[in-house]
Fold this protein.
Amino acid sequence: MNHQTITLAEANTYVRRIHRHSAPVVGHKFSIAAWKAGALVGVAIVGRPIARNLDDGATLEVLRVATEGQHNACSFLYGAAARAAFALGYDLILTYTLEREPGNSLRGAGWSRDGKAGGGSWAAHGRRSGAPLLEHAGLPDPRKHDHGPKVRWSRSR
């Protein structure tokens, strides 16, 4: 497997095809594509942390990872994202999973589980998700899909 950068538009298109419930990412620092035998098998989109108190200029967040299910593609992308972040001078990279997800791909890429995320679930009551705007634009409503408590993962330099 090898990797290269990919535009945000290309990465969002891929994510939408694989994970139709995920809204497109608006901005990013970089996106990475994983290739095997000339075929695109996954992408990772990395940007500033969503949580304002974590947006300190030294931290990035993996906002989306999507793969075709290729063996080790997720670990490959998480590892490449961390190496790229550190090469760019960042000290910490974060991501979040649902609590019930085991995180094997993250562990395989050298990430550590930090524990429960403080922000609650992705479908927190009263949270403005922008879903009516998304539906109007023909995009999926993230409130209509599987949600739950989150866990934060990190890898530091």
The chain has one domain: 2-156. Confidence is low (pLDDT under 50) at residues 121-144.
